[in-house]
Write a structure and sequence with these properties.
about 350 residues, mainly alpha, Growth Hormone, Chain: A
């Protein structure tokens, strides 16, 4: 692999080909760990309201039906954050968007710990959601750029397991943290964690090399990054390039125009539908499972622990799915597992109805 001629006569290196052929370096593992921790804290903050809800309802004396807006506020903010962050990162860079998003969801999660009524908490959770929605896709995209194509699906899936682990950890921790220190304590933990991690993002995490190349930034910046991955191959390079589409469509349309253009419209809609239906189930159970368990007579500790177990199950399956996507047709793998999971959920609901 080291003998491959990456550079053209003008000494311009294909950065993506270099990463594809080089063995995984410690630098790439460092990027993986930081992005994993970003997704991990994102998961804790996303699921926090579900674990806090039973204690909050008891503390404030509110009915379960009044918690609906609070439960969904962060999800509404996540939609805006996800839609806005992509074009913003394409213009200013993924690293700065990541750091700012962590400042947003960390800061507003801290503020949520001091909320005094449902109305203020709805606003704070909505603003938190904007940061949460911006952090996840940018962390995932940034890490995927540094993954070799041959094992990209597996590595990205393992990194993304941090989201489910964060949700699960939030449940396990809250099972003893909330009864001991109150519901505010989970918000404090979920707020300080991303703010501390933001320091690593600013000073350690590299910018997207693809962004630097496409925007025509100083090649020396790209060299310093790639030197950590394949120092021998980049030492004589004078420029870097990546395989980018230079079509007339791409030049005339913005990112949403490209997504819904003829070559991509069908895939975009199918992926959106699959992701939407998956998140409906995940967020519905994450938000309401602890509260419903509490109303069946389970203790607050047990309700939070069971909510954490639900998320932990997603980690186990995700590891196998990531491996399968690298070995087989990824579209079919997603379709099969999505169909199986939804069938199991429907059967579970039907059995509960029959028992009643």
């Amino acid at each position: 692999m080291a003998s491959q001629d990456y550079a053209a006569p003008n000494k311009s290196i294909d950065a993506q080909a270099l990463i594809n052929d080089a063995p995984l370096s410690k630098y790439q593992w460092m990027i993986a760990i930081i992005c994993f921790l970003i997704i991990f804290t994102d998961g804790i903050d996303t699921a926090a309201m579900g674990f806090i809800a039973p204690a909050l309802a008891q503390d404030w004396g509110v009915d379960r039906s009044q918690l609906g807006p609070v439960m969904s506020a962060a999800l509404g903010g996540m939609i805006i954050g996800a839609l806005v962050s992509g074009p913003t990162a394409d213009r200013f860079g993924r690293k700065i968007v990541l750091a700012f998003s962590m400042l947003v969801f960390g800061g507003f999660t801290l503020a949520s710990a001091y909320a005094t009524n449902l109305d203020s908490l709805v606003v704070l959770r909505f603003l938190t959601g904007i940061g949460l929605g911006a952090a996840m896709p940018n962390a995932t995209t940034l890490f995927s750029e540094y993954c070799p194509t041959r094992i990209r699906s597996l590595l990205v899936t393992c990194m993304f397991c941090g989201y489910n682990l964060g949700m699960a950890t939030g449940g396990f921790i809250s099972s003893w943290l909330i009864p001991t220190y109150g519901w505010h304590s989970l918000f404090l933990l979920g707020g300080w964690s991303p703010l501390i991690l933001m320091v690593l993002v600013i000073f350690v995490l590299p910018e997207s090399y693809r962004f630097l190349i496409v925007k025509g930034k100083n090649p020396e910046k790209v060299r310093k990054i790639l030197n950590h991955i394949a120092p021998t191959q980049v030492q004589n390079a004078t420029a870097f390039h990546v395989p980018e589409e230079k079509t007339e469509t791409a030049q005339k349309k913005n990112v949403f125009g490209i997504m819904f253009s003829k070559p991509y419209a069908k895939g975009t809609l199918l992926l959106w539908l699959t992701y939407f239906m998956g998140l409906v189930v995940v967020y519905l159970l994450t938000s309401w499972l602890p509260t419903l368990m509490r109303e069946t007579g389970a203790s607050m500790e047990r309700a939070a622990f069971i909510g954490g177990l639900f998320q932990f199950g997603g980690v186990v399956s995700a590891l196998f799915i990531g491996w399968a996507m690298d070995k087989f047709n990824p579209n079919r793998v997603i379709a099969i597992f999505d169909g199986v999971s939804k069938s199991m959920l429907v059967n579970s609901v039907n059995r509960k109805i029959e028992k009643k």
